[in-house]
Amino acid sequence: MKKTASILLALAMIASAVGLGSCGSDSKGGQVSIQATTEPELKDEFGVGFKVSDDGTLSVSSYTSDDKDVSIPDEFDGKPVKSVGQSAFKGQDITTVTMPDGLEEIGGFSFALCTKLEVANIPEGVKSIGANAFFADFALTEIELPESLQTIDINAFNATGLKEIVIPKNVTSIGEFAFADCTTLEQIQFSGKDTVVASNAFKGCDKLTIVAPKGSPVEDVAKENNIDFIEL
To answer: What sign for the dihedral angle of Cα 91, 92, 97, 99?
Structure first.
């Protein structure tokens, strides 16, 4: 019940404050919904739908198969796949996803509410993980982030089942509530010294220890939130 209430509160906060255009609140009951995935322009034989971007590359826009193990192709119809679009897999009953080499962006809400997702392979080359990308993916207990990654947006891993995670040195920013309510998260290690971290990025992570270089911005976040800090 506590975790459910926390998720509803986070969704309400997103809808009212963030303004992503993908959430809305019911004026009568206060319920929050996430905008449905748009109809794909192209679709492969495995149920992965795509939208053609202005530069001729593809963004994954939907998934319609019952297969719980997803493999996103490198290209389709002669066009490279460069991103996973907003809400593409939102709420899907999938357990694993393998993303292609050449992918550069994981969009907002792309894997949100995939509560059975256990494995998400993020390839080298991905630069950004969008807002709420893996929100409330309770079964996601571990993930390896690529060295190419630069930004982790708000709520990206909020309420996941992560236990440990390493933040690559090229990550410049971690947004608000990015790892909030990860109640099983025990350690997060920062490889670089310059990552700027929102003060509430780890709200509700009561078991957490932060490992990072001395003098890095996240050391101040640890002190502010009474989180154990170990100098790398």
So the answer is: negative
